[in-house]
């Protein structure tokens, strides 16, 4: 898995990149948890998600947000990190101009950044938001959410309480033209201690079903003239 350094808005960014053998393969970008609370691209969940997409033929990138590892710059409370993510996607797309679609997967803080990236990039056709924190971060920009995706959390998460995640899911589920799949890992905390395999199993199942053409939103009802 090649180590890569590419240019970001605040200097160089460090990543791990695995190109697909297929020129037109979809791209997957994996976004790590909060930089100020130990989040890096080597987080176990981020690492496993990277391999999950890679095994399914995606061109895959995970990277360190600014100020982490060998990535230059300083923490910027989300705004700069969103620019980092956009630059990361630009960089992969510059190497794979035939790739037409993209997925974004984010964990915790990374889920918030990933959902913002989703709003700005119409080529993102699927997302995974793992342990998002609507109790801390504002998700009201998802109006409307442009793509179907998976939201997954633990029912023992004290950092992102279940009731707050449920509120976000219910809000998104009212939107037409997309399908939000919500999974809860019983007994899991915010870090999925001892439950990473269960989490990955749910993510794999969701991705495989999407790639098989399942989990398609119902078409909008036709108006009677």
Automatic annotation (TrEMBL):
Gene3D superfamilies: alpha/beta hydrolase (3.40.50.1820). It comes from the Bacteria. One of its GO terms (molecular function) is hydrolase activity. It holds the Pfam family Peptidase_S15. Residues 17-138 form the Xaa-Pro dipeptidyl-peptidase-like domain. InterPro entries: AB_hydrolase_fold (IPR029058), Xaa-Pro-like_dom (IPR000383). This is Xaa-Pro dipeptidyl-peptidase-like domain-containing protein. It comes from Rhizobium paranaense.
């Amino acid at each position: 898995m090649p180590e890569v350094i590419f240019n970001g808005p605040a200097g160089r960014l460090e990543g791990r990149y695995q190109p697909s053998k297929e020129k037109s393969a979809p791209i997957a970008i994996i976004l790590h948890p909060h930089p100020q609370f130990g989040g890096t691209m080597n987080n176990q969940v981020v690492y496993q998600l990277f391999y999950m997409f890679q095994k399914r033929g995606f061109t895959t990138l995970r990277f360190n947000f600014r100020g982490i590892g060998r990535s230059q710059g300083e923490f910027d409370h989300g705004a700069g990190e969103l620019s980092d993510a956009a630059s990361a996607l630009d960089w992969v797309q510059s190497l794979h101009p035939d790739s037409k679609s993209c997925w974004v997967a984010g964990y915790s803080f990374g889920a918030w950044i990933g959902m913002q990236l989703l709003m700005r990039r119409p080529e993102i056709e699927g997302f995974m938001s793992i342990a998002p924190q609507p109790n801390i971060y504002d998700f009201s920009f998802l109006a409307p959410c442009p793509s179907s995706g998976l939201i997954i959390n633990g029912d023992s998460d004290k950092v992102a309480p279940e009731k707050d995640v449920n509120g976000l899911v219910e809000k998104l589920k009212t939107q037409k033209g997309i399908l939000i799949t919500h999974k809860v890992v019983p007994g899991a905390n915010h870090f999925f201690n001892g439950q990473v395999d269960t989490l990955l199993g749910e993510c794999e199942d969701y991705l495989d079903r999407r790639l098989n053409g399942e989990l398609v939103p119902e078409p909008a009802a036709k108006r009677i003239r």
